[in-house]
Specification:
single chain, 206 residues, alpha/beta, Rossmann fold, 2 domains, 3-stranded parallel sheet, 3-stranded mixed sheet, 8 strands, 15% strand
């Protein structure tokens, strides 16, 4: 793939990466490539069995990798709170400064399609398979925008990264909908999220 790719990831020694859904697909590839470049990687996965299996697999593919599995079920607020507490404790201990950036994978052929094709019937499954063959990029390509946002020099606050052609291609600064830049809507969403989750971030600047 022309353009920025995983070989361009700079040295990540001394950095810690928390990757959700890291037991397979884009999440696993993201974790693996960060580990290859020296990052300490936390595999945050819902399934303990799949998470631990991914840890074993990653250690085999990247000898000497600093990697650990921590359980995280994003559908369970108690699990999220427990994970957030542990993450906050580690950040505080490290005196870490965080840059918030976002990325989207475009259309990538991953194991997420397996459940959809099983539920949708034979015709739907054939349609998804055709779309994967014609339009989708592999999971290795889908992981690149996240890797770029997390590691490329010059990525600043509120950056948004995606594939060059929207659904596939090398990662670039991505177009974003105008409403995503509406600060008032963002503040309302933030307040609603705090209320629904019971987690407050009052110390952060607004």
């Amino acid at each position: 793939m022309p353009g920025w790719n995983a070989t361009h990831i700079p040295d990540q020694s001394g950095r810690t990466a928390v990757v959700t859904g890291a037991n397979g697909g884009i999440g696993y590839i993201t974790a693996r490539e960060l580990a290859r470049r020296g990052a300490s990687v936390v595999l945050a996965c819902r399934s303990a069995a799949r998470g631990k299996a991914a840890e074993i697999r990653l250690r085999a593919e990247v000898p000497g990798a600093e990697v650990e599995f921590i359980a995280l079920d994003l559908a369970d607020l108690a699990s999220v709170r427990e994970f957030t507490h542990e993450l906050s404790r580690r950040f505080a201990a490290a005196g870490s400064a965080i840059t918030a950036a976002a990325a989207h994978p475009g259309y990538a052929s991953t194991n997420l399609h397996a459940g959809a094709t099983q539920d949708g019937g034979t015709l739907y499954a054939r349609g998804v398979a055709l779309a994967n063959d014609v339009v989708a990029q592999p999971a290795t390509g889908g992981a690149l925008p996240t890797l770029y946002a997390a590691t490329a020099p010059g990525v600043g606050q509120d950056a948004f990264v995606g594939p060059r052609f929207g659904w596939r291609g090398a990662p670039v600064r991505s177009w974003r909908a105008k409403w995503t830049l509406d600060d008032k809507s963002g503040e309302r969403l933030w307040a609603a999220s705090e209320k629904l989750t019971g987690v407050s971030y009052a110390s952060l600047p607004r």
